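Summarise this fold before class:
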Amino acid sequence: MAKKELKEMSFLDHLEDLRWLLIRITIGVLIISCLSYFIIDYIFEEIIFAPIHTNFITYKLFCELTTYLGSNDGGMCIKEMPFIIQSTEMGGQFSIFIWTCITAGFILGFPYILWEIWKFISPALYEKEKKNAVWFILSASTLFFLGVLFGYYLILPLSVNFFGGFNVSSVIKNEFNVDNYMGMVKTSVISCGLIFELPIIIYFLTKIGLVTAQTLRQYRRYSVVIILIVAAIITPPDILSQIIVSIPLLLLYEISILIAVLVNKKEKNG
């Protein structure tokens, strides 16, 4: 099936379209960021700073799990968080307020960002493929939000628990700057959200012929090494955390192979 005839566009025309794409995305994110102001107290108290409390749901589940497995010493039950979070700069809290609103705008506005990206690339697609806009936005948004939840409920509490309790000497007290903590929060949730887009990325790479299922299978062993390295980067430096994080990432890679198989089969069948 031939692609729809498109008006010939110069390189500068494409740059102009890209410029307006970025402008629309920026405006959309800023609007949602402004709206997040009305729930900013909830965002700070119930979401951002929830993992620094011992009653956070992840800590409870790990405690119940180790108790169920018969641990006599309490296993991963957390009884205290031996650190405090402080702001050491005059405008530190105001800066955090602004960037938290912007981050919330980006996360909540991700489906809109995907919609704008789809409109930008859709002229290069087949007519049949253009009808998959809803599927693309729903699936990509779902994967992103699953990644955000994965980072928030697993990566972040593991990191907080490890670094918050790590101490080389009783003389040193852990007093973390709020900027460092907020950086950890944003890195954990956004990086995981983007990593979870792997199946979508593989789908498009397979559609344009840059990747095949055979290639993904051939380089599976190297991918395992890369995934382990990524897990080591985004998690605390302990083996258990890296294994816990590596499992869903490996599952995502296997799902990507399955998607590539289906796309290749569909291409062969015409």
